[in-house]
Q: What sequence folds into this?
């Protein structure tokens, strides 16, 4: 009789009880992806899938193709891109927001302290018409600055490309996201422990500017993790992923040097020290999509007021925000 009871239990198991054969994670080489890389390296998702891989995307166009073709299951992306794709009919949901502050103006001139100080100067700017270009334009225009007229914006493919221009002295100023900002300072020996004539300087903290200019918190819901395709219908696995991502983010923050080592070995342009620096300067905090919704809608409203096409003309509806039990 015992085997009959056991058989009945096996038969009654839901179809999704088995692990996935493969799980593909994707993201840029930025702080939002560090926990994803740690999860792959540490085997944190071994109870979800037999094989877990991380595939980087290098620019917004590559990201959009990846999302449209469902070439990954879980993708780190800017929150505005997530909303834009969702409003265009891409079957995705936002799981969480973890990146709240990674944008800096880096300059060769120590006297530049505000965005107005950059009038008339050439600024390397990554990701045209995406973050961080959007944030920069919003902040500048709120202060009466027209970036396209008052500055010479030199658009490049990624923050790492902008960093390279700085290091090679082909530009003197750039808007960088971490870890590119820390990498630029490290490459020129301008990081905090070097106090003798640093070549580059952290200038404007765009998060602090956001809080000052718009009279709100000095942070922005800049990037998070989305789920694509059929995996949206696996709340059991997604709840496990949420917990694993939150744990890996905490591990990266507490073990920045080790985090730097596992991230830097995947990309030649980064060093472990720069990634570790970026983890100490970035505003990183795991917040579920539902919990982040008020901050996101406030952020999205500002984007819509500037350029409705950034979000396909509207706020995403309630189904955009994944609901799970992680608090």
A:
């Amino acid at each position: 009789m015992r085997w009959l009871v056991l058989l009945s239990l096996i038969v009654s198991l839901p179809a999704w009880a088995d692990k996935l054969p493969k799980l593909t994670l994707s993201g840029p080489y930025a702080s939002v992806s560090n926990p994803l890389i740690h999860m792959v390296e540490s085997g944190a998702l071994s109870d979800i899938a037999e094989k877990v891989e991380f595939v980087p995307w290098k620019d917004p166009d590559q990201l959009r193709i990846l999302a449209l073709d469902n070439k990954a299951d879980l993708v780190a992306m800017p929150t505005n891109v997530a909303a834009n794709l969702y409003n265009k009919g891409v079957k995705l949901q936002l799981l969480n927001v973890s990146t709240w502050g990674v944008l800096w103006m880096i300059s060769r001139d120590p006297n530049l302290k505000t965005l107005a100080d950059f009038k008339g100067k050439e600024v390397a700017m990554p990701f045209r018409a995406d973050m961080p270009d959007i944030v920069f334009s919003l902040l500048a225009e709120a202060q009466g600055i027209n970036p396209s007229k008052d500055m010479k914006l030199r658009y490049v493919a990624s923050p790492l490309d902008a960093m390279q221009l700085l290091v090679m002295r082909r530009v003197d100023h750039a808007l960088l996201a971490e870890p590119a900002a820390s990498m630029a300072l490290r490459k020129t020996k301008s990081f905090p422990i070097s106090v003798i004539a640093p070549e580059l300087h952290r200038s404007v903290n765009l998060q602090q500017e956001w809080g000052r200019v718009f009279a709100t918190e000095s942070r922005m819901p800049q990037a998070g993790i989305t789920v694509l395709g059929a995996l949206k219908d696996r709340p059991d696995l997604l709840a496990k992923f949420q917990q694993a991502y939150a744990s890996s983010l905490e591990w990266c923050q507490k073990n920045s040097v080790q985090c730097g080592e596992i991230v830097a070995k995947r990309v030649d342009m980064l060093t472990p020290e720069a990634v570790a620096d970026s983890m100490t300067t970035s505003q990183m905090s795991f917040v579920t999509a539902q919990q982040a919704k008020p901050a996101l809608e406030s952020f999205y409203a500002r984007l819509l007021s500037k350029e409705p096409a950034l979000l396909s003309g509207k706020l995403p509806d309630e189904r955009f925000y994944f609901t799970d039990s992680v608090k």
